[in-house]
Amino acid sequence: MIAAGEVIERPASVVKELVENALDAGARSIQVELRGSGLDMIRVSDDGIGIPADEIALACTRHATSKLEGFDLSGVTSLGFRGEALPSIAAVAELTIVSATDNSGVGRRVTLRTGGVEVDEPAPRPVGTTMSVRNLFHNVPARLASAGRPQTEMAQVAQVVRRLALVAPSVQLSLRSDRREVVRTRGSGDLTSTLIDLYGAELAGHLLTFGPKNLDDAVVRGIIGSPELTVPGRGHIHVIVAGRWAQPRGLLAMIESAYRPLLPRGRHPILVVIVETDSSLIDVNLHPAKLEVRLLHERAIGEAAAGLIRDVLGRTPIPLRLERPTSLIGLDLGPRIDEAPASYDADDPIVTPHLPPLRLIGQVANRLLLLEAGDGMYLIDQHRAHERILYERMTQADAGGGPKRVTLPEPLLIELTAAQARRFSRRQDELAALGFEWEEFGGRAFLLRTAPSMPGVLASETPGALASLGESGELVPTLRDLTSLEDEATDTWSERLLVRLACRTALRRGRPLSREAMRALVEGVGQSDLPAVCPHGSPLLMHVSVDQLERQFDWR
Ligand code: ADP
Ligand code: MG
Questions:
Q1: Residue 523 in contact with residue 352, Cβ under 8 Å?
Q2: 149 near 142, Cβ under 8 Å?
Q3: Looking at the CA of 73, which ligand is closest?
């Protein structure tokens, strides 16, 4: 009824099936050993419930499974349920099973070659099962030939083991390859320490947990590496749905659009998203390796996960890493911190909804604002702070629901080539939706009459402390350049326009600032619910904790 035609494609597929079986058998400790990257031998030993002596050979026949009660597939909670793995492995390798169901010390050994039982005898073994797979694909030359280089196969196996370690953080899991240890988890049951076991101690202190968030039919939680821990590919994004590692496409897309604007371009996070949901709400029988699941309420779950990720990434200031004291020598602190020595407004902290109360100390190197809070020191990049403020203001809606729009005292003239003008006209509605209104002024010129609110850039706005610190001259060239971006999806086009406009018109680094301007920047950033990163995803806020200073200076 549920045959999926399971295919054993490579050593990693064998490891996946055998470790899943061990987990289904309730193992607390599982060892995986490889020789010759798995083509010579794969051995998986567990301390699970074992297989009764008279059922070992049966377990290796097609569609034999002990995991289904009746024919109801909707409630399966075990990782396997089709009874296809052992016969598929036995068909392409020599399989030896040694298993015992109690601790009498005696179990049974069964060896199968090309599917038939060759050995069936008593063997010493404490409770649990050892499966040894030798000479994989010896009878399928095509698959043997298509096996990748040993490192490639090994990397695939390690990937499978890491995924299962995250599925079962309370199980001790180890992987050795030609006696070298590749993976080892402690089985602490804690997801953070499991991630550290898998990826290394450098992760400690850089993992942000989010959730749990309760939805009607699911609970969403997880862990994400902080923005300085990113990697180039999506290989370390793990989604676990109802106890299975899975790749639900829609959910993954929603997660990615949540972190994309908060991480450096082209980089991806180390991320684990756990979705606890009733297994009757998912359909795992879509994919031969059960990697794709159909998830009911995927949209709601994806929105919850995306919201949690956006919040945790956008709010956490990046801890400044002061490596060895020697590197401090290279730290250029710039000429002078502040003109007036004692002008640090101690009784006048800057209070905002999304940052702790901050006391402004001054400007460093004409680039950074230096601030103090109860929990240490904060550094703010002045350019990115203004960028964040501009981006938020441009995306803010008026009371009437439209964008907050400013009428320019003098309309701005935009002159274009014929091709640019055609593209520009096509964008009229989208530009209007952002707050830009213009009229044609001869065939290829346009007069810009309104723009979205851009404090510090547009002179017509109430002259505040930031007035004319921005690069107002960049407004027209940026709009003109954007017309050469070819037809992209509307939402990404206007998003890119806003990000680029904010970046190009924001006040530059190297500009000395008045205290009022610095306060205005900090106030603006603290109003944003994503105060830690600029719209490109680069850090704008750094934190040096008192604790860190104590350690670095050896004050304790
Ligand atoms: P499935 O996992 O879909 O049931 P398999 O072919 O993987 O099918 O395994 C067949 C049966 O063998 C399982 O249902 C289980 O009863 C038994 N089995 C396999 N591996 C183990 C193990 N490590 N410990 C205990 N039982 C096992
Ligand atoms: Mg199985």
A1: yes
A2: no
A3: 1
Q: Is the pLDDT of residue 114 over 50?
A: yes
Ligand nearest to the CA of 63: 1
- Angle among Cα 209, 261, 482 to the nearest 5 degrees reads 180
Q: Where are the beta strands (DSSP E) in 397-545?
A: 405-415, 437-440, 445-452, 541-545
Q: Which residue type is seen at 549?
A: L
Pocket of ligand 1 (CB under 6 A): 17, 21-22, 25, 46, 48-51, 59, 64-67, 80-86, 129
Q: Is the pLDDT of residue 291 over 70?
A: no
Taking the CA of 67 as reference, the closest ligand is: 1
Mean pLDDT of 417-438: 86
132 CA → ligand 2 middle, Å: 15
Compute, in angstroms, the gap from residue 65 CA to the centroid of ligand 2.
Answer: 8
Average pLDDT over the chain, rounded to an integer: 85
Q: Whose CA is nearest to atom 19 of ligand 1?
A: 21
Strands 359-364 and 318-319: unpaired
Ligand 1 center to 65 CA (angstroms): 6
Please give the number of the atom of ligand 1 that sits closest to the Cα of 83.
8
- How is residue 238 annotated by DSSP? E
Handedness of CA 70, 74, 75, 79 (dihedral sign): positive
Q: Name the range with the highest mean pLDDT among 227-231, 421-425, 452-456.
A: 452-456
Bond before 212 cis per omega within 30 degrees: yes
Residue nearest to atom 18 of ligand 1 (CA): 21
Tell me which DSSP letter residue 342 carries: T
Instruction: Check the CA dihedral 217-221-222-224 and report its sign.
Output: positive
With beta carbons less than 8 A apart as the criterion, state whether 457 and 508 touch.
no
Cα of 66 vs centre of ligand 1, distance in Å, is 7
Indicate the DSSP class of residue 292: -
Single-letter amino acid, residue 489: A
Q: CA-to-CA distance for 305 and 326, rounded, in angstroms?
A: 41
Which pTM was predicted? 0.69
